[in-house]
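Lay summary. Proteins are chains of building blocks that fold into shapes, and those shapes determine what they do. In this project we predict the shape from the chain. Here is one chain we studied, written as its sequence of building blocks.
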Amino acid sequence: MLRRILAFLLFVGLIAAVSFLVYFNAQETQFWLTPRHQFRLPLGVLMLGAAVAGSVVMFLLALMREGRHALREWRVHRELRAAERTAEYHTQARSLVLSGDYKRARLLLAKATQKRDPDVSDIVDYAETFLLEGDAGQARRVLEEGQKQYGNEPLLQHALARACRAAGDTPAAVSTLERAARACPSSLAILSMLRDSLFETASWSRACEIQERIVALKPGDNAERNRLAGARLEAARRAPGELRGAALRALTGEHPDFAPALLERARFLEAAGERRRAVRLLEKAAKRRPRSVLLEELERMVPEERRYKLAKLYGKLVTGDPGNSNLRLHAARYLLHNRLFDEAEQLLRGLSSNGVGSSAHALWAEIHEARSDTARAQQEYRHALSGHNPVALACSACGAASTAWRERCDRCGAWDTIDAA
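And here is the predicted shape, written in a compact code that computers can read:
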């Protein structure tokens, strides 16, 4: 109420001030509107008219400014609403893709671009529906049309390469990924797909270059380093003559424990008439890290007159790694096949507390058979064939427990009735 009274008093005061202004300035004066048009009006009226005209002009300017702000705000809200609808269409489309309704997903993706030009992500999402549906050809066509508009955009190139690979055109995928890698040289996704495509086309030299870049981006990843070693090995295998030997030598020097490269170089040396160098290479590798593939190749290459040296090597390897059951079994098998029964038995006795299964029993059976101990050989063969722990045995006739396989039960005298408990 007080505010209204004050506003009324202010209005009355303003009217009174204007009235006094007109009253005290009643003398007429000339007012030139144009050089040819003039008026004679009281000075107070002219002052009041000037004030009114100025107010009108300021009001119009303020109205234009506010109108421009209102128009801009309306456009922003309209764009926000359009963006929200587009995001909603995309969300619904992804849900439909997840449920396998690719046709409806494409309709929503097309609807999302009705009032604006599609961008790269729209084209990729649209093509993805065809790719998931199994129509790699149509996906490729969609992406190639988008390529005409956006050129060598990495995201588009990556999707196009996927479509080419799905369509079975790996060379086209390689060409596409090469362009994408030049545009985005630090992308692991692009480089990894390019490497895989080069592996498929057996372009090993170029694959090595790409894999080196991947290793540089992921220096602590052992799997990537192994892939690099494998790519270099394949490239070395396809190198001619001396280049092949130099490549294998460099590879084994950089990766001294890479078994495939060691085997390849040893076979290369053997084919070149340098079997002794090949044997020394495998012996050094086995001393660093004994593995079955290296030992088997070493056994094949060692001549008959040097078998005793290989037996000594096995003794050193077992002594250096006494807990390696697989190495002990491998060494025992080699000694047994070379009729070194006592040495083989000594190695097998070291396995008695390690819980080894059928492999050790089979070797024991061969030892007993070579010594004409048929009963014990048959017992060990039963152990090897059963694959069960001999402690968990019982007679199927009376249930008596047994700690070893027997043809006849000590309790009830039944024959051939010992089964797994």
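What the prediction tells us: Confidence is low (pLDDT under 50) at residues 388-393, 404-408, 412-421.
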